[in-house]
Every structure is written in structure tokens, then in C-alpha cells.
Amino acid sequence: MARITLRIDIEGRGSIGPGKVRLLELIEAHGSIRQAGVALKMSYGRAWGLVQELNATFGQSVVRAAPGGATGGGAHLTPLGRHLVAAYRTAENASARAARKSVGKIEGLAER
Predict the structure, then answer these.
(1) Nearest to 57 by CA among 5, 6, 4, 17
(2) What DSSP letter does each residue of 49-99 carry, written as one string?
(3) For the residues of 42-58, what is the DSSP string, one character each?
(4) What's the gap between Cα 77 and its chain centre?
(5) How far apart are CA 80 and CA 111, in angstroms?
């Protein structure tokens, strides 16, 4: 089954797409950047780098992280991060609905 993936390029700032959004969702679910990275089969360094890219793109933190150690650390989305995930998923769903007919035609061409 064909599907639409949405990547939003913000001119001069950066981009956000399904991978970064899924990373944010998993950070919130696991309470950990490291565990979110493990779930996506990426290193902590790669996951942290993507979080930093998002922070730079949006001009403020999308994840609030506390260092580990005896206190346990952890990470959670900021209000901006939660709003960003919700807005992206809304845009993704709207795009899929709007393109459903065209995507079906393209998929049909691939089945020939």
C-alpha cells in the first residue's frame, strides 16, 4: 500500500519530517533520549544531534533533558515539542486525505 510522507522544509532554518517526529514521540513515551534512539536503532549521539537540530530550527528547546546519574535524569517534550508533534500529525493526516486519490492512481501505475 502506498502512503504519503510529509517533510516540511522551513526556509533558512531546517526541516521536520517523519523521523524527527517519531523520535520526539518516543522521547516522550520512554522519558529518555537514549531509549528513544535505541527504539529507532540509532545511537544516542545521533538522537541528541537531531534534537539539537530541532532546537535550532524552532529557536527554543523542544525537549527538556536532565543529565543521568544518581538522580536518574530523563527527557520529556516541552510544550513547544508537544505542540510541534500535534501540528505535524495534523498536517500529515490532512495531506494524506487530500492526496488519497492521486496516490491511488500512482500506486495503480506501479502495479502494471
Answers:
(1) 17
(2) HHHHHHHHHHTS-SEEEE--STT--EEEE-HHHHHHHHHHHHHHHHHHHHH
(3) --HHHHHHHHHHHHHHH
(4) 12
(5) 42
pLDDT at residue number 73 = 77
- Predicted pLDDT of residue 2: 85
Are the C-beta atoms of 74 and 32 separated by less than 8 Å?
yes
49 closest CA partner among 5, 71, 8, 40: 40
Give pLDDT < 70 ranges for the chain.
69-71
Give the pLDDT of residue 66.
Answer: 84
As a residue count, the chain comes to 112
Q: What is the pLDDT of residue 71?
A: 65
Q: Please count the CA atoms within 13 angstroms of the CA of 46 that sit on its side-chain side.
A: 12
